[in-house]
Design goal:
heterodimer, A: about 160 residues, mainly beta, five-stranded antiparallel sheet, three-stranded antiparallel sheet, about 0% helix, B: about 100 residues, alpha+beta, two-stranded antiparallel ribbon, 2 helices, about 25% helix
Chain lengths: ~160, ~100
């Protein structure tokens, strides 16, 4: 089914689809257990709305090979062809990430840190951090997610795709 | 009455400058041979990644994004056909360019 705007066929939205995707953390050195691991999408024309939700089960927390690598999540349902550095816009909620302590606080983050999801490398979800006492944004790294607490992160964003 | 459930890759697309292979996996439920529902799960394969020294590591093309399900020979053949040396070199250059300063 196509949805038409105006009278020109070039104005049609001939693509609508809903489905699921599997968020998958890059750089793991173990196999974590999850309370929730959810990915859903809706595609309308060349616009994709993706929702991801990862909640860790405290019995086996994620461990990463490198704590300083950028925290990335693979698995998006469509490639990103958006503008700007991170090609997507939306919102993120989280709890129990570990920003505190001498080995965690290089960027001055704390529990009021704001995370903003974006996309890099066409298909990798990343999370930019911003917070008080922070004068620039940076991509969150693995150590905030490493072997600490039963954290969760819940995000959704819109992005433009190639197809 | 017979209900059946099958899965199939019902759409395999090659998209973008770096020939990402975009795959739609359908789960189809039929009643007495007549399709009742079709639901979709998607993932995308890229040509490879960088290691810590920026060496290019080819996509091993072993598992789907769930880390459990084997990729089919059809998908592997398509990936190997489109991921030429030039494409891999271009993708490697993009990955390096995308790294944070």
């Amino acid at each position: 089914m196509a949805i038409f705007f105006g009278t020109e066929t070039t104005d049609s939205l001939d693509s609508y689809e809903e489905g699921s995707w599997t968020p998958s953390m890059d750089g793991l050195s173990n196999t974590p257990q999850y309370y929730n691991l959810v990915g859903k999408y809706t595609k309308i024309g060349n616009q994709v709305k993706a929702h991801g939700f990862i909640q860790i089960n405290g019995s086996t927390k994620p461990q990463f090979s490198s704590l300083t690598d950028i925290f990335k999540i693979s698995g998006l349902p469509f490639t990103c062809n958006g503008e700007g550095y991170f090609g997507a816009s939306g919102q993120t909620k989280w709890a129990q990430l570990d920003w505190r302590g001498n080995d965690k606080g290089d960027y001055g983050h704390n529990e009021d840190t704001v995370l903003q999801a974006g996309i890099t490398n066409s298909t990798k979800t990343v999370f930019n951090t911003c917070g008080p006492a922070v004068y620039y944004c940076a991509q969150s790294i693995n150590r905030a997610f490493h072997n600490n607490y039963a954290w969760w992160i819940d995000w959704e964003f819109w992005y433009k795709t190639n197809s | 009455m017979a209900l059946t459930e099958t899965t199939e890759y019902d759409k395999i697309e090659i998209v973008g400058d770096y020939k990402h292979v975009q795959i739609r996996k359908a789960t189809v439920i039929k009643k007495d041979g007549v399709e009742l529902t079709r639901t979709f799960m998607r993932f995308v394969l890229d040509p490879g990644t960088l290691d810590a020294s920026d060496n290019f590591i080819d996509n091993p093309l072993t598992k789907e994004i769930d880390g459990v399900t084997d990729l089919t020979d059809e998908v592997k053949t398509i990936c190997n056909a489109v991921w030429t040396t030039d494409i891999k070199a271009a993708w490697k250059a993009k990955l390096i360019a995308d790294k944070p300063a």
